[in-house]
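Exam revision sheet. Question 4 asks you to relate a sequence to its structure. Input first:
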Amino acid sequence: MAFEAGQRIGDYEVVRSIGAGGLGQVYEVRHLISQRSEAMKVLLPNQRATEEMSERFRREIQLLGALAHPHIAGLHNAFYGDGQLIMIMEFVSGETLRARGSRMRMPVHQVLLYAQQILSALEYAHARGVVHRDIKPSNIMVTSSNEIKLVDFGIAISDNSADLTAPGFMVGSVSYMSPEQISGGKATTRSDIYSVGVTLYEILTGRLPVNGTNNFEIMRSHLNDRPVPPMELNPQLPYALSNAILKALEKNPEDRFASAREFLMALQAVPATGMGEAMSVATTAFHIPGSSAQPLQQKSGSQAAQFPLDDVSKKLAVYIGPIASIVVRKLAAKCSDLDQLYKEAATQIASEADRQKFLQSKRR
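Answer key, structure tokens:
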């Protein structure tokens, strides 16, 4: 049954219905003694008699009970009331990332901060054997204090629990689902990384990295279509950020970041210069973000021509794609020697390991 405002369940009084999550209905409730606002989650009426859904709900409670992180909405209590299992969670005052993204254009630096908090939460969960499996903007809350809270672990799995999904079936949101999940494989930590990549791509460009008007077309796109580089859709994005997102979206899990920590470090290495204050303001000049503390001096065209530009461009293209030739030529006009050119070009590569490989290629 649905709960009404003013109704009491155990030590809690219902304030209002907030909405429905992946497994159940969520209410704002108030603890009768402490008067603290909390969130109450119960299974939807049509799911209570389903053994699989009941087991998923019980598992969500157990998984959350083992997690305590500032960017994960925490579990406070669980009990049986009116014959059904009830979960009491941290009440998050704010809005979903989906709602915020549809309401306003978020500055790139703010999205980067959100992304780092999401990855910090996933790094913590993954280290404890928990894979979320349903990362998407509607499962990411932005609090009134502008902090991220990851919510809805309803289909999460852990190393210590059997997967309730029968072989050949999928769980999760198709638009954000990794290729291996679509193919019927088991979700891993790298599947969450893919979903974060989809989420960031959408928030920063205003569109998904996949195409399709129905689930079948979207699934096929996840499996086969290479995304347009985010910086081509939003020229304001730094190259390192665009490349990090593309790495997270690799079709083969082994080609993605090895961990949420590695993805996090790549985002932390994105140069702050050139982001601008608002996504809606596009840069008119071609800007190459650099990491040097001192400004680069402009070189003449004849001096820049002395560099082996084609060779450097070919080596850089392995990591950032065809745009490497433009990047190298812009940087060459400001570099005094080949070592400096390689160091500045390396700042455009998202992964630290790949940056080192590129720098080492200079000796070959």
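Marking note for examiners. The first strand starts at residue 8 and ends at 9.
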